[in-house]
Amino acid sequence: MKALKTIFAELASLFVDDGAYAAAIVVWLVVVAVLVRFTTISSNIAACLLFLGLAGILAESVLRRARK
């Protein structure tokens, strides 16, 4: 059972290195999806918001990693 747990943890770490980074991306995707669904925001503005938010999340993650 321990070997199976180790294999799963290694497999998950291939896709998610930083849990906070992954969680921030998911949260931002949900925020933009909710904005698109429940407001009259255009798809062009939503695309810009999505890009800027993801770029900001990436920049924050890089700066946080650089401080380590």
Provide a quick synopsis of the model:
By secondary structure, the protein is mainly α.
Number of domains: 1
Alpha carbon gap, first and last residue: 34 Å
Shape: elongated
What is the strand content?
Answer: under 5%
- Averaged pLDDT: 89
Strand element count:
0
- Taken in chain order, the helices and strands follow as HHH
Determine the oligomeric state from the structure: single chain
The structural class is: mainly alpha
Summarize the main sheet.
none
Point out poorly predicted stretches.
Answer: none
> What's the alpha carbon Rg, rounded to whole Å?
16 Å
Helix content: over 70%
Topology, element by element:
Layout: H1 2-15, H2 19-38, H3 43-67
Helix pairs in contact: 2-3
Protein architecture, described:
This protein has 68 residues and is mostly helical. It has one domain. It contains 3 helices and no strands. Helix 2 packs antiparallel against helix 3. It is elongated.
